[in-house]
Design goal:
Helix content is 45%, strand content 3%. By secondary structure, it is mainly α.
């Protein structure tokens, strides 16, 4: 990760200065540049392609367990934790499918008449009752 930072920013700052600041050797950085890709990294790259295919086929709703099962069915026998790690590194996070609003079959209830008509004066107690709701839960949501 440190060497990748140095490689990315070597056109801005000198390699020797960044290596001194980050506490790594310049020879280690140059060896890292010339080193071929490891077998594990090449397997991971193949596996990421399969993971991405399964993940996008599921409309980005499959988590690591379901993707792992799909990869196993395709003939690649890798562990669940490896799938989890690769999904995390490649920012593949499952999102839940959206639930639709409840279906309304039938007619809506009748709205009660305004009997008071803003006449709040009462002749005696307990004749007129009022309530002030700023919101109320209904089948359509908060109103």
């Amino acid at each position: 990760m440190t060497f990748a930072f140095v490689a990315k920013h070597r056109h801005i700052w000198s390699v020797s200065w960044m290596c001194d600041v980050l506490g790594v050797s310049r020879s280690g950085f140059h060896a890292w540049l010339r080193r071929p890709i490891s077998a594990r990294a090449s397997y991971d790259a193949k596996l990421v392609v399969e993971i991405d295919k399964s993940f996008k086929t599921s409309d980005r709703t499959y988590g690591a367990h379901r993707v792992w099962r799909d990869v196993l069915e395709n003939g690649l026998a890798w562990g669940l934790h490896r799938i989890e790690r690769l999904m995390r590194q490649n920012a593949m996070r499952a999102r839940p499918k959206r639930r639709g609003k409840p279906k309304v079959d039938g007619e809506r209830s009748v709205i009660a008449d305004n009997i008071l008509d803003r006449n709040f004066q009462a002749d005696r107690p307990n004749q007129k009752w009022l309530a002030d709701f700023t919101y109320i839960w209904t089948a359509e949501g908060w109103l």
